[in-house]
């Protein structure tokens, strides 16, 4: 059912010129440049969702008292639009992002945006800004829908006014010099999410909580941080913004089970099905950090990789902690990781059949 909320289009009267856009698309990086338009809608306690528009990308004017600045009532999504060989533009499982956005909204006491309105807004934005979807390599148009409490009020309660917004940013190949395996720092002091908390919601606060541990990872010569469960500090959960997978020496594949504190990645979920298609037994279960350390040392664990929309699939070279470091195999990633990565990218970029009906054509 399509929702009553219609996003009316107000074209940007001063879009980037073809030359300006071509310059940006030649080397877009990640998250630095934005397309000509954005989607925006307002919710109020009295009127529900209204004033939904696709309009010129630009600054929001907000009171310093706006509740999100003080109490972090906010959620977001991350998804991509891909250009296929015939120049048509497609999204990967957008309905999964719509459903997760609604679930995150519930946890943060934000109003749910009807999933059909979420999808309509994204499709309308991508269609209008289709010239911003780059061509070639592993490039895409990264989409960032988000919602926040926009009530100019310092009282602590769910915001009586909420803003939904979606912006689009052209993204170059995440790994310009080919896929580079990452070193992972084990955070033994800080945790990212506790039972009953917000770990399973896509909310800025989880990222804020991860940044100091991420800084510690960088200080220790690592690229990313891995978090353990908050109670026993024993079970591997995920990275700051990516889920983890392990490939064992019997060719089976394992990922930490959803515990209520792990973010359920769309990539993680898709890989569960893709590895089955590729003929590997796959299980979701608890994995202790000792199993990781000992398995990498003994060869029982052959490959480790991280996954998420932004970087897709990244091999893990090693796990480092304050008293040591263990490399995974030769530290260069392995064939199972490479096969899963190709299978996923081939699907997203329209180079292969789509047996699970995961792709949605936008235009
Ligand atoms: C977004 C996110 C992921 C990856 O989810 P995808 O849907 O695969 O992009 C993993 N962990 C955290 C904490 C995240 O915020």
Short description:
The chain has 363 residues and is α+β, with helices and mostly antiparallel strands.
Can you walk me through this structure?
Keywords: Amino-acid biosynthesis, Aminotransferase, Branched-chain amino acid biosynthesis, Pyridoxal phosphate, Transferase. This is Branched-chain-amino-acid aminotransferase. Helix 3 (94-107) crosses helix 4. This protein has 363 residues and is an alpha+beta fold. The longest helix is centred in the middle third of the chain and has 16 residues, at 204-219. The relative contact order is 0.14. The strands form two sheets. Strands 1, 2, 3, 4, 5, 6, 7, 8 and 18 form a nine-stranded mixed β-sheet that branches. Strands 9, 10, 11, 12, 13, 14, 15, 16 and 17 form a nine-stranded mixed β-sheet that branches. The two termini are 21 Å apart. It has two domains: 2-171, Aminotransferase class 4, branched-chain amino acid transferase, N-terminal domain (D-amino Acid Aminotransferase, Chain A, domain 1), CATH 3.30.470; 182-348, D-amino Acid Aminotransferase, subunit A, domain 2 (D-amino Acid Aminotransferase, Chain A, domain 2), CATH 3.20.10.10. The chain is 26% helix and 29% strand. The structure holds pyridoxal-5'-phosphate. Residues 78, 202, 206, 238, 241-243, 263, 265-268, 308-309 line the site of pyridoxal-5'-phosphate.
């Amino acid at each position: 059912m399509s929702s009553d909320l219609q996003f009316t289009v107000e074209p940007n009267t001063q879009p980037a010129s073809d030359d300006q856009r071509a310059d940006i698309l030649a080397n877009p990086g990640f998250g630095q440049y934005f397309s000509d338009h954005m989607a925006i809608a307002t919710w109020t306690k009295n009127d529900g969702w209204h004033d939904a528009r696709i309009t010129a990308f630009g600054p929001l004017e907000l009171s310093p008292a706006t509740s999100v600045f003080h109490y972090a009532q906010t959620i977001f999504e991350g998804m991509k639009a891909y250009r296929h060989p015939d120049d048509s533009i497609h999204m990967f499982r957008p309905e999964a992002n719509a459903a997760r956005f609604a679930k995150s909204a519930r946890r943060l006491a934000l109003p749910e945006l009807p999933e059909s309105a979420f999808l309509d807004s994204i499709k309308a934005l991508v269609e209008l800004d289709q010239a911003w979807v780059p061509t070639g390599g592993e490039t895409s148009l990264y989409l960032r829908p988000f919602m926040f409490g926009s009530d100019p009020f310092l009282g602590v309660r769910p915001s009586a006014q909420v803003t939904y917004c979606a912006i689009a940013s052209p993204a170059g190949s995440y790994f310009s010099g080919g896929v580079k395996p990452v070193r992972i720092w084990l955070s033994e002091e800080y945790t990212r999410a506790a039972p009953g908390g917000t770990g399973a919601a896509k909310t800025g606060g989880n990222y804020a909580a991860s940044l100091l541990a991420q800084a510690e990872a960088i200080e220790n010569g690592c690229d990313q941080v891995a978090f353990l469960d908050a109670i026993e500090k024993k079970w591997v959960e995920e990275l700051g913004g990516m889920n983890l997978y392990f490939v064992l020496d019997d060719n089976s594949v394992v990922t930490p089970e959803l515990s209520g504190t792990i973010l359920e990645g769309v990539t993680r979920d898709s890989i569960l099905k893709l590895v089955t298609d590729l003929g590997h037994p796959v299980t979701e279960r608890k994995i202790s950090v000792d199993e990781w350390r000992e398995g990498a040392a003994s060869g029982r664990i052959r490959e480790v990789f991280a996954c998420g929309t932004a970087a897709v699939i990244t091999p893990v070279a090693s796990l480092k902690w304050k008293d040591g470091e263990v490399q995974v195999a030769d530290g260069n990633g392995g064939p199972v990781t490479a096969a899963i990565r190709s299978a996923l990218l081939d699907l997203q970029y329209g180079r292969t059949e789509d047996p699970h009906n995961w792709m949605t054509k936008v235009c």
